[in-house]
Design brief:
Layout lengths: L2 H4 L2 E5 L4 H10 L4 E5 L12 E3 L9 H5 L5 E4 L10 H21 L4 E5 L23 H4 L4 H16 L4 E7 L1 E3 L5 H6 L4 E4 L5 E2 L1 E3 H12 L5 E5 L5 E2 H8 L3 E4 L1 H13 L22 H7 L7 H9 L3
């Protein structure tokens, strides 16, 4: 690694989230890491600078204005389905637009935005593996992810409008580990509901492999859209069997209404809009990042679920 890479100043938005913390711990010994998050970062390394700010605040620009910033990793994306559509829009879309404006205004050479492979959406007629140029169809079946699709598309548009900035969109498949998200909430249910007669192929990956992918796309010269996945896809039934939890098979006519009722009553924490992933496959082709950046996942399915089982 060159001296120039050692002295890069990297801003991480959403640094206090699980992925932000892991990325900061991975980078801080080699780079000057600066974080933006409205949440505290307990146990942060002493050489990591935290600005406890809401990403929508105009005060965030001071972080970009003072001191040369070499790269921005934008992780500050809201995925909480219980928040309002307005808050999702202002946080994800408006917040991301502001980060882009700061990158242009202060001539920051690199921007990495963490999206999700879920933006492709599960469909019964989808091709087996979706490449980065596949249409983003998730909002057709799930209006609650419209802001995630919009954020992804805005970033892709930014890539073409500002070629002077190395812009990367990273689309990971379902992330497991110590994170709290829809897939992990589903697999942590005491009795896991499964649609009778449906057994789609599922891709999962470990949070540490996501951090490895973020490090790879941060390298100077890397730009574009990259899907990223973990071990080979498996049928949902195989994934559920590996969890060791009891599975409750429910006929389709009552499945969705039951899930919506239990979610509304806060009995279960799996959001109903994610039901589509229990019916149809949404598989991402990550051959580009493997070929161009020599990415290979290091955590296999059993290790992913072992780590997942030990986290409550």
């Amino acid at each position: 690694m060159t001296a120039e890479q050692h002295t890069r100043r990297v801003v991480i938005t959403g640094i206090s989230g699980r992925l932000g913390r892991l990325l900061a711990l991975d980078l801080h010994r080699e780079h000057a890491v600066v974080g933006i998050d409205r949440r505290p970062f307990e146990g942060a390394p002493s050489d990591v600078t935290l600005h406890q700010l809401d990403i929508r605040s105009r005060r965030c620009e001071d972080v970009f204005r003072h001191g040369k910033v070499d790269a921005v990793v934008h992780l500050n994306i809201m995925h909480d389905p219980r928040r309002s559509a307005e808050e999702h829009h202002t946080f994800n879309v408006i917040g991301t637009q502001q980060v882009m404006e700061y990158c242009v205004r202060h001539k920051i050479p690199k921007l990495v935005v963490l999206s999700t492979a879920n933006v492709y959406g599960p469909h019964p007629r989808s091709q087996m593996y979706l490449t980065e140029d596949a249409p983003l169809m998730a909002s057709e079946t799930d209006p609650q992810v419209r802001d995630l699709v919009t954020t992804d598309m805005l970033t892709c548009g930014f890539f073409w409008r500002h070629p002077e900035i190395e812009t990367v969109v990273l689309r990971p498949v379902h992330i497991l580990g110590t994170v709290r998200n829809a897939p992990s909430n589903y697999l942590r249910l005491p009795r896991i509901p499964k649609l009778l007669g449906f057994d789609p192929m599922i891709q999962v990956m470990h949070e540490h492999d996501v951090v490895r992918a973020l490090r790879l796309v941060l390298a100077p010269g890397v730009r574009g859209v990259f899907n990223v996945a973990g071990p080979p896809a498996v049928p949902l039934s195989v994934l559920l069997a590996e969890t060791g939890r009891p599975v409750l098979e429910i006929p389709h006519p009552i499945f969705e209404s039951l899930m919506r009722s239990l979610y509304a009553l806060r009995v279960w924490s799996f959001p109903p809009p994610e039901i589509g992933f229990l019916k149809y496959a949404c598989l991402a082709d990550d051959s580009r990042i493997r070929f161009e950046l020599d990415y290979e996942p290091r955590v296999d399915l059993r290790a992913i679920l072992q780590d997942f089982r030990t986290t409550r």
